[in-house]
Amino acid sequence: MKCFFSFCILFAVLSHLFFSVKCFNQAKAKGDIVIEGLFPIHESVIVTVNDDGSENRTRDRFSTARLVQSLIMVQALEEINQKRELGNLTLGYLILDSCGEVTTALIQTQAFMMRNSNNRQDCAQQSSPPVLVVIGDYYSELSIGVTGQLHLEYIPEISYGATSGFLSDKTRFPSFMRTVPQDDHQGHAIAQILDHYGWTWVGVVATDGEYGRYITERLRHHATKKGICFAFTSVLPDALNDDSREESINSTIKSIIDNRNVSVIISFAKAYHMIDIFGKLLKYPQGRGKVWLASDIWSQSPEVLSSQNYKLSDVGTIFGVTLKSGNTTKFERYLDDLDENPNHHENNTFLSNFLKEHGTNSSEELKKMIYPYAVFSIELAVKAIAQAVKDLCTNRDCKTQSLRPLELRRALRKATFHMEEKSYSFDHHGDLNSGYDIILWKQTQDSPDVNNILAYYSIEHQSLTFTSQETQQALQSHIGNVTSKCTDSCRPGYRKTSVTGQPGCCYQCEPCAENQYSNTTDSEKCHPCKENYYSKNTSSVCLPRKTDFLKWGDVYLIVLLSFTSLGAVLTIVVGIIFLAHWNTPVVRSSVGPISIILLLSLMITFTSVILFGGPPNSYQCQARQVVFGLSFTLCVSCIMVKSFKIVLAFEFDPVIQSILKKLYKPYLIVTVSMAGQVVIVTTWLVLSPPYIDSEITQDNMELMFCNEKLIPAFGAMLVYIGLLALICFGVAFKGRKLPDSYNDAKFITFAMLIYFISWIMFGPVYVNVTGKYLPAVEMVVILISCYGILFCQFFTKCYIILCKKEANTEKAFRCNIRNYSMDHKGSEDEVSSNRVENPNLSVSVKSQDNWNSVKLSLSSLKVIK
Ligand SMILES: *[C@@H]1O[C@H](CO)[C@@H](O)[C@H](O)[C@H]1NC(C)=O
Ligand SMILES: *[C@@H]1O[C@H](CO)[C@@H](O)[C@H](O)[C@H]1NC(C)=O
Ligand SMILES: *[C@@H]1O[C@H](CO)[C@@H](O)[C@H](O)[C@H]1NC(C)=O
Ligand SMILES: *[C@@H]1O[C@H](CO)[C@@H](O)[C@H](O)[C@H]1NC(C)=O
Ligand SMILES: *[C@@H]1O[C@H](CO)[C@@H](O)[C@H](O)[C@H]1NC(C)=O
Ligand SMILES: *[C@@H]1O[C@H](CO)[C@@H](O)[C@H](O)[C@H]1NC(C)=O
Ligand SMILES: *[C@@H]1O[C@H](CO)[C@@H](O)[C@H](O)[C@H]1NC(C)=O
Ligand SMILES: *[C@@H]1O[C@H](CO)[C@@H](O)[C@H](O)[C@H]1NC(C)=O
Ligand SMILES: *[C@@H]1O[C@H](CO)[C@@H](O)[C@H](O)[C@H]1NC(C)=O
Ligand SMILES: *[C@@H]1O[C@H](CO)[C@@H](O)[C@H](O)[C@H]1NC(C)=O
Hints:
By secondary structure, the chain is α/β, with parallel strands linked by helices. It is rod-shaped and about 165 Å long. This is G-protein coupled receptor family C group 6 member A.
C-alpha cells in the first residue's frame, strides 16, 4: 500500500510538472475506449530560455483549421456513440495540442502514457481508462517522433496527414498507420502532370523536414525518368524564428526571378512559407503570372493569399494535389448545430476559447476552415478504430475485459471498414492508397475557393480522370499554353543535342542530315529514310524517290529514234532496189548475197538502237549490247568479205592471187568472225551479265541504268569489232585506187574511218558522261556508224542503178576495168586521156596478161554470184 501511495504522489508531481507547461489546453470526453487526438492546433511554439536555464514554451499561431479538424474527430466519435454502433461500448477522447513541434508532441504523449502505466498499476480508480490508440499527428516529423514513443506500449497511431514515405517502413515504425497515401505516389502524380503538359524545366520550393525532403526526393526520382529537370530547389528552414529564414526566402525569390524560363514552380512548402514567398515575390512583375503546383501541404490553404491581400490573378495559377476529399455536408450541419455558449464546452478548452473570441460568428468562421481531405481521412481513421474494436469485441465483453493496445493494432491492420459505400483497408505498409484530388484555385469574392476539384488521381491505375469535360477545358484554358522549358523545343527535322556542362533539359537542336528525318518535337535522334525514300536536310518526312531514266518522251530520244527509223526505212529501200536490180553488174560487183546480209545486219543494228531507250529492265539490259555486238560484227564481217573480194579481183600477181583465191571463202569468213564475237558475248553473259542498277543523283532522283558490270567484256566486244574493222580498213586502203566502178574500196575505207572516229570519240565521252543520257551516247555512235556504212556502201550504187543506167551495164564495166588495167600496166598518159575523154568506148588492151586477169576477175565475180 505504501508503495502504491508513493507512486501516486510521484505521478501527481510529474503530471503537475508536465501540465504546468501552459501551452497545453485539452479536450476530453469519457468513454470505455479512449482515443487520443494529436492536432497541431497551434502551428508553433516560441521557446525562451529562462535565467535558470529552464525553457518557457509559449504556443504560437493558432490554427482554426486544425481546431476544425479536431472537431471532425469529435463529431465522428459522437456519431458512433449516438448510433450505438459498438453496442454498450462508448468511445471517449483526449485531444491534445502538438503545437506542430516534436518536443511538445513528445511531452504531451509522455504525459498520458505515464497515466496509462499508472492505471495499469490500478492506482487512480477515478481516472478514465487508458488511451488505446492515437489519431494524429498531421505532420510526418511529429508522427515519426511520437510513434517511436507510443511503440514502447504498442499503442497504434493512425495519422490523417503524415505522408512521408519513411513511415511506410514497418520495421522502423510498426505501430504507425495512416489513412492517406504516402508521398511517393504524390511525387509520381506530380511528375505525370508535368510530363503531360511538357514542363521539363521547373522550380521546386520545399520546407525542410521529413515531408519536404522526402517528397522532393521522390519527385526528382519520378521526374528524372520522364526527362524533367529542376532549375532550382529551394529548401526553407522550418523554424519560424530562424534568422536564416528571411535570407532563404530572399534567395528563393531571386531563384524564381532569375530563372525566367521557369514558369512552373512546385511547392512543398508549408503555408506560412508560402505567405512569406508570395508577400515578397508579387512585388516583382517577373514574379507574377506563374503556375504554382501545390502539394497537399498547402494546396487547400486559402490564407496563403488572403493574409496578404493578394488576388489569385496576381499569383497566376494555383493548382495542386490534395488528399482525397470527403463529403463535408454532415460536418457542416454539425457546426451549424454547435452550441455557441463557451460554458457548455468546459471540457474542450480549445473550442471554448474560440467561442469566447468569435461569439456568434463562430460557426461561420469554423465552417470556412473545413478541409475536405481532413473530413475524409479523420473520419476514416475513426471508422477504422470503431471497426477494429467491433471485430475484437464480438466474442468478449470489452467493458470488463479491457483491450490491450497490441490486440487493437493487429485488429486495425486487418480491419475492413466502410465509408460512403466504399470499403477500405490498410495495405501491408499500414498505408491507405485512397488517391488524390486535383484542384484548381478559383477567385471568389473574399478568399479563393480551394475546393474546386477537377480530377481524381488513382494510385492503383496511376492515371488522372477528369470529373467532366468542362473541368478538363477549365484547366486547359489556364495552363494549356504555359511552357516551362529550359530551351526552345526542337522542331521536327531537328534532333536534341546535349550541351556539355548543362542539365539534360537544356539542349541545342541540330538539323537532321540529308536522307534522315525526325517527325516529333524534341526528337532524340534523326531516323534514316527507308529504301527508295529520300529527304533534304532538316526534314520531317521522307519522300518517295522518283526514278529517272531515258524516257520515251524525251526529246533527245525522239530525235534519235527518228534517225533510227529513217535509217531502217532507207535500209529497206536499198534492199528493195538491190533485189529489183539483182542481175545488174553493180549489184553483182558488190556481191549481191553478201550485200543482202549486210543490209539485214544493218537493219538489226538499227533495231538494237531502240533497246537503249525507255525504262531499263534486265532482259533489255542484256539484249541491247548483245544484239548490237552481234549484228554489227556481222555487218563488219560482210564488209570485210567485200574488201577481200576487191583486192582479190585486182591482185595481178598470179601467185598471191592463187593463194588469195584459196582463202577466199565468204561464208566461212563471216561465220568465223561471228563465232569469235559469239564466244565473247556468251562469256560475258555467263560470267556477269549486265543488270539494272540505280544511283542517287544530285537532285535526289533514283537513276536507273544498265550496269555493264564486266567492263572488260564490253570492251572486248567493241575491240573485236574494231579489229575486224581494222582489217577491212587495211585491205580496203590497199585497193582504194581501183577503177571507179569498183570504188567500193574507197568507200569502205571511208566508212571504216567514220566508224573509227565515232568510236574513238565514244570512249572518253562514255567514261565521263553519267546520268540518263549515257545510253544516248552509245545510240549516237551506233547511228553514225550505221549511217556511215549505209551511205558509203549503198548510196553510190543506188545512184548508179537508178540515175546512171548507162553505167550499169557489163560493157561499161568491162571498159572501165580495161582502162584500169592499162592504167595499171601501160602508159599513164594514154590511159588517163582515154578515161577522161570516153571511159566507156576507148578500150585498148596493151597487155594480154592484164586482160586475162580482168577476165579472171570477172569470172570470179560470177562465182560469187
Ligand atoms: C514565459 O514567457 C511569456 C512571454 O513570452 C511570459 O508572459 C511568461 O510569464 C513566461 N513564463 C515563465 C514561467 O517565465
Ligand atoms: C448493455 O448493457 C445492459 C446492462 O448493462 C445489458 O443488459 C445489455 O445486454 C447490454 N447490451 C449489449 C448489446 O451488450
Ligand atoms: C531580403 O530582401 C529584402 C528586400 O527585398 C531586404 O530588405 C532584406 O534585407 C533581405 N534580407 C536578407 C536577410 O537578405
Ligand atoms: C454529401 O452527402 C449528402 C448527404 O449526406 C448528399 O446529399 C450530398 O450529395 C453529398 N455530396 C457529395 C458531393 O457527394
Ligand atoms: C466535463 O467533464 C466532467 C467530468 O469528466 C463532466 O462531469 C461534465 O459533465 C463535462 N461537461 C460537459 C459540458 O460535458
Ligand atoms: C462578427 O462578424 C461581423 C461582420 O462579419 C463583425 O462586424 C463582428 O465584429 C463579428 N463579431 C465578432 C465577435 O467577432
Ligand atoms: C492558347 O493558345 C491558343 C492557340 O494557340 C489560343 O487560341 C488560346 O487563346 C490560348 N489560350 C490562352 C489562355 O492563352
Ligand atoms: C530561355 O529561353 C530562351 C529561348 O528559348 C533562351 O534563348 C535562353 O537561353 C533561355 N534562358 C536560360 C537561362 O536558359
Ligand atoms: C513518325 O514516323 C513514324 C514512322 O517513321 C510513324 O510511325 C509515326 O506515326 C510518325 N509520327 C508522326 C507524329 O507523324
Ligand atoms: C541544308 O541544305 C541546304 C541546301 O541543300 C544548304 O544550303 C544548307 O547549308 C544545309 N544546312 C545544313 C545545316 O547542312
